[in-house]
Every structure is written in C-alpha cells, then in structure tokens.
Amino acid sequence: MAPRRSTSADKNIVDRTKPRRNPDVARTVREARDRLAQQPGNPVFDREMLRLHARALTGSAVVVPLFAIAVALAGLFAGMGVVVVLWAMTSAAIYAALAAFAQYVGRAGPDEQTPVRISFLMLHGATGFAWAWFSGLGCEACQIEQFPIIKAVILLLAIAATAILAYALRGALLATFAVPVMVYLYLAFENGEPVQIVMGGLLAMSLPFFAYVSSHLNRSTVMLLSFRTEKDGLIAELETANAISDEARRRAEEANLAKSRFLASMSHELRTPLNAILGFSEVMADEVLGPMENATYREYARDIHDSGEHLLDLINEILDISRIEAGRYQINPEPVILCDIVEECCHLVALKARNKDIHVIQDFEPELPQLLADERAVRQITLNLLSNALKFAPTGGTVRVRVGWTAGGGQYISVKDNGPGIPADEIPVVLSAFGQGSIAIKSAEQGTGLGLPIVQGLLELHGGKFDLRSKLREGTEVFAIFPASRVLGTNRSAEAPIQLAAAS
C-alpha cells in the first residue's frame, strides 16, 4: 500500500527553508575539474607534492637529531674528541631548521611553489654539508681500523632513509648526498685502502639506486594523487546530479501541489453546475413538467444529459488518478466475493454490449473464498477493464471474463477481447497516464487514457499487480491479480485447476 500523508501535508510539501547548494556544488565542480586538468609540473600539482614532502619531514623531525646525538656519544666514548659533538650540534641545528620550514609550508601553504622548492633544496644541500663533514671525520686517536666502514654504513643508512622520506621532492636525495659521497670517495682514493675504496664504490652505486627507488615512489604518489582527484571529481559530479535532482523534485512537488489545489477547487466548481445540468436536462428529456412539442428539443436535452455524464466521469477519473498518485486514496478492505462483484459489473455493461452485438462470456471458478478488498475499488477495476474491452471489441465479437485462482494461491480477474490488439511498442504508452495507442486515437470512442493507470494504482494499493498481453489482429487480455495474502479462509485443494499459472 502506498504511504499515506496527513491532511496538512500540502503546506509542508515544498521546503523553502532548505539552503540551496547549487553555488557551493558549482564551485566544487570547478575546483575538481581544475585538479583533473593538472599534470606534474603544474604549480598547483607540485604544491601538493611539496606539502606531502613537508608532512613527511615534520613527522620524522626528531629522528635525525637523535641519531646525531647517538653518533656523538659513541664518538666521545671512542675518543674522537669535541669535533664529533660540534658535528652533531651542527647537524641537529640544520635538520631543525629544515623541519621548522617544513612545518611552515605544511601549515601555511604559500601560493608560489617555486621559491618553496628552491628553499627546500637549499636546506637539503645544507644537510649535505653536514654529511660531507661527517664523511671527512677521522679517528686517529681511537685507532679503530673499521672506522671507514662504519662511516660508509652510516652514510648508506642515511641515504636509504632520505630516499624514503624525501621521495615527494625531486632532486632532494642528490642535493643531500652527492657531495658527501664524493668526499668519501676522494678520501678513500687518497688513503689507498682497498676496503675504503670498495665501500666508496658501494656508496657511489647505491646513490643512483636509491634515487631510482625515490623516483618510483614519487611516480606512485603522483598516480595516487591523480586517482584522488578523479574521485573528488566523481563526488562533485554526483553532488551536482543530486542538486539537480533535488531542484527537479522541488519543482515537481510545487507543480503537484498546484495541480492538487486546482483539482480540489475545480472539482467543486465543475460538479455543482454539472449536477444542475444533468438534473434539468433529464427533467426536460423525460418531459416531467409537461410535454415538449418539438422533438428536436427533446433530442438536444438527451444529448446535453449524455455530455454532462461524460464530463462528470472524466472529472471523477482525473480526481481518482490524482489521489492515487498523491497517496491519498484510502481503501477500506472488507470481505467480498470476487465472483459476485464481477457478475454485477457484467450486468451493468450488458446493455452497452447488446447495443454493439457483443457476447460477454462469463467463466468463474466455483466456490471461491472471500477476498479482503475494497468493494468500490474492485468494482471500479472491473468496470474499467470491461469498458475497455467493449470499446475495442468489434461488432458481433466476444468478451470473455474469467475469475479464478492464481498459481500462488491468489485470485484474479481476466478480461479478454478479440479486438485489433495493441502493438508491443505501444503497451508502455497505453499503461501511462493519459496515454493512448494509435488504434485508440483512430477509434470513434476516444477516452481519457486514465482507465488502465487507475486499475494499476488500485491494484498496487491492494498489494496486487496488473498484467496486459496483446497481439495485433488477435485481441487483448488483461489480468487484475490479487495476492494470496488477501484470500480469507482458503479451502482450495491441491487438485484445483490453476487458471493463471503464467501470470502469477
């Protein structure tokens, strides 16, 4: 059953207090599209990479000073003197300045990225000066033969750590360790020790290797940023579609509210004079107040009465479909016998069928149990289906009306005619409100196109469904199916014939 709304819902249908999101969404879309157009080398894109680099340095700001302090303590213990302490203090100060600048960049985000990049490279070059100083340190007093190897290992660890931390800034690794490695190689060849030369060569080969690793991480980060930008763009497009949908829904609700108010007003304004027209025209046609000498006047009075009834039926159908679409059509379920209602409806249309020489065949399943349904709605469903069948059945044709079980234990009404049928591509049009097929448009008995949509709406309120099957030049058969949940006290046996296995 469709959700019901309160009588005060009209005033709350359109929420005009909700802030419009269109300007914000449009701005988000523009920003997202600008980011989608960015490529590496674009100032905005490179600024994002510099911020990533700044966040990486800020997160590891304490690592290098602690490492320098540990090296200084080890050097003092080995007897290297105060020179190692000076180196440690200088290194800690330079890295502290680098971390402070990185924190400023990450927090402020300056507009121009080129000076920021140069500043970063200069600070990394300053840290390279500290590592070059470390490469030139000696240890004659401590007399540790493996000291060159220890320095090489420390430099190798520093190169690896910098390659991982500074991947977002291209050239940072070479700016930091190109000079220290050259200093180490110079001292190695000057001393002429094979082990130191081998370690120098190892450092020289490791530098381009870690530079490749760093560039690979840089490309991966660029790809991730691109994916994130595309995701932001998709989200922005979805927000735009959502905003457009909200605006369209708001306008539709306003139009629906205006339509409901118009129909509510016009139904009274039209029905009042129509009742007078129908009453007076019937009095005149039946000559209740005296004979009418002119027969043409009597015919006019009958035509006026018939036209008024047609207009009243049209108004009632429009009001019914409006209430159904608005969810305000309330049904009052009660136990009914489906066969009795359908039989009464067949009697009501019997005169129209005789006038067109159409034979109505009734085929009802015996002893059907009661159905929990709205009697007025079931009657309207049946009359709409019968009226359509009689409208398109040819003179001398037949209309077959069936009532029986569905395969799922429900009950159904079937109305079949041997008329011209409906083309397959026109069935969705016929089932839509005010929709009419090409045959109906050419027919002399044109309707409003609301009969079948009303049937569908009333069946949905009962939890049922509607099915239409048609073939050109063979006729049309329609099914109004009520679910098994509305059948009361079913006594159906397993051997009972199933009349509508396919439709259920």
Automatic annotation (TrEMBL):
The Histidine kinase domain extends over: 265-486
Q: Which SMART domains match?
A: HATPase_c, HisKA
Gene Ontology terms, cellular component aspect?
plasma membrane
Instruction: Give the residue spans that cross the bilayer.
Output: 56-78, 84-106, 118-137, 149-167, 172-189, 195-213
Q: What is its EC number?
A: 2.7.13.3
Residue ranges under compositional bias (Basic and acidic residues)? 12-24
Give the Polar residues compositional bias ranges: 1-10
Q: Which GO terms describe its molecular function?
A: histidine phosphotransfer kinase activity; phosphorelay sensor kinase activity
| Keyword Transmembrane helix attributed | yes
Q: Where is this region: Disordered?
A: 1-24
What keywords appear on the UniProt entry? Kinase, Membrane, Phosphoprotein, Transferase, Transmembrane, Transmembrane helix
Catalyzed reactions per annotation: ATP + protein L-histidine = ADP + protein N-phospho-L-histidine
Judging by the UniProt lineage, the source's domain of life is Bacteria
Q: Does the keyword Isomerase apply?
A: no
Its name, as the record gives it, is: histidine kinase
Organism phylogeny? Bacteria, Pseudomonadati, Pseudomonadota, Alphaproteobacteria, Hyphomicrobiales
